[in-house]
Amino acid sequence: MTIDTCKFAGQKAIVRVDFNVPLDENGKITDDTRIRGALPTLKKVLEEGGALIIMSHMGKPKGKVNAKFSLSQIVDAVSEKLGVPVQFAPDCAKAGEAAAALKAGEVLLLENLRFYPEEEGKPVGIDKADPAFEEAKKAMKESQKEFSKTLASYADIYINDAFGTAHRKHASTAVIADYFDADHKMLGYLMEKEVQAVDNVLSNIKRPFTAIMGGSKVSTKIGIIENLMDKVDNLILCGGMTYTFAKAMGGNVGTSICEEDKLDLALSIMEKAKAKGVNLVLGVDCVAADKFSNDANTQVVPAGNIPEGWEGLDAGPETRALFAKAIEDAKTILWNGPAGVFEFDNFTAGSRAVADAIAKATANGAFSLIGGGDSVACINKFGMADQVSYISTGGGALLEAIEGKVLPGIAAIKG
Ligand code: AMP
């Protein structure tokens, strides 16, 4: 079933959203992107004459009630955005009566799911090394099923629109789906868009395909790099991981960030790229700094010849031109991880060159997907969010999807 074909009139839909929004010390929302992201799905159900039960997690309360993470703080904001009053159920596992009383067009927001350890399904207060751990884990799986069944009992239809947690097999993201048949469970609009975007870069590829992998470490990106190696035409590796490659090739990297134990890995990535005919683009020069600070002294030096006491914090001008060339002609583009320490205004040039080239290619008809935490922060810092095709809302979920892993939240619905 899809959200467009489902008939919601007179039905109750329980929707898993990601309302894990940042709050300031007074409980005020500082960025409502996630709430806005779920609105098309929520409004669709209401406009068709359905009733809504909305559920989410917030923060990491670790299975315990904690007022700091109470979703009661966002009731007014959700109500304002939906344009209807929102009722609040202060205990997500005891909301049966409130849910049963809902009429068409009414909305009930459940308290933070993670106030119950059953949501994540991990036993609490017992160490993994404890001989009783396996028993506790089994018992928790059983109570997770009960908890999921309770949530499912509130509604006729289940919708998952929380891409940010789709890589987790939690009660509300996956287990609950077992209590609905295929005609009564579906992805929400946000999830559909994310799935489509990932499909565009993993299956439905228009060539040439350029992936830009940046960030601090090669070790955290290796799964993705390996999966992409079979798909891309150009692979740009940038940011801090550059220096592990420079060192592996016998260069001097000064005090640059470098994973000494990953030099062999770097060499094997280079070998693989060669064997598979992938054009691997590594920086040739960098902006080196005499300290890790925005107001450090700087000099442009070859990427493998950084003086002692200096560290590479950004891509140099020749490198930026190489990156732009590999991006501008592409028809499919994936960007994950900045090309320098973009948080410092004086070291944004590499990331800016990447963003500019992506915007240019997108204007020429390329599909560009930006995702994974910092590259999103980067494109927002440059005010260029509207110049790319799609910005993913999922950090870990997007990375796992691109690694080629099956996301439990999607599998639970699509099978
Ligand atoms: P990641 O979380 O692995 O995607 O890494 C993102 C972080 O990498 C950002 O905070 C960047 O500041 C950082 N980064 C990018 N380039 C460098 C570099 N040359 N040296 C140190 N950190 C970097």
Q: Could you characterize what this model shows?
A:
With 415 residues, the chain is of the alpha/beta class. The chain folds into 2 domains: 12-191, 3-Layer(aba) Sandwich (Rossmann fold), CATH 3.40.50.1260; 205-402, Rossmann fold (3-Layer(aba) Sandwich), CATH 3.40.50. The protein contains 14 helices and 17 strands. Strands 3-4-2-1-5-6 form a 6-stranded parallel beta sheet, sandwiched between helices. 48% of the residues are buried. The mean pLDDT is 96. Bound molecules: adenosine monophosphate.
Topology:
Elements: E1 12-16, H1 33-47, E2 51-55, H2 75-82, E3 87-89, H3 96-100, E4 107-110, H4 117-120, H5 133-153, E5 157-160, E6 185-187, H6 189-202, E7 209-213, H7 222-229, E8 234-237, H8 242-248, E9 252-253, H9 263-276, E10 279-282, E11 285-289, E12 298-302, E13 305-306, E14 311-315, H10 317-328, E15 332-336, H11 349-363, E16 367-370, H12 374-381, E17 390-391, H13 396-402, H14 408-414
Parallel strand pairs: 1-2, 1-5, 2-4, 3-4, 5-6, 7-8, 7-15, 8-10, 9-13, 15-16, 16-17
Antiparallel strand pairs: 11-12, 11-14
CATH architecture grouping of the largest domain: 3-Layer(aba) Sandwich
CATH topology heading of the largest domain: Rossmann fold
Amount of beta strand: 15-25%
Shape: elongated
Number of strands: 17
**N-to-C span:** 12 Å
Largest sheet: 6 strands, parallel
Small molecules bound: adenosine monophosphate
Trace the largest sheet across and list its strands: 3-4-2-1-5-6
Low-confidence segments, ≥5 residues, pLDDT <50?
none
Number of helices: 14
- Please report the first level of CATH classification, the CATH class of the largest domain: Alpha Beta
Estimated radius of gyration: 24 Å
Helicity level, as a percent range?
25-40%
Give the overall pLDDT as a whole number.
96
Task: Look at the structure and name the CATH superfamily of the largest domain.
Answer: Phosphoglycerate kinase, N-terminal domain
Category from helices, strands and their pairing:
alpha/beta
Please indicate the count of domains: 2
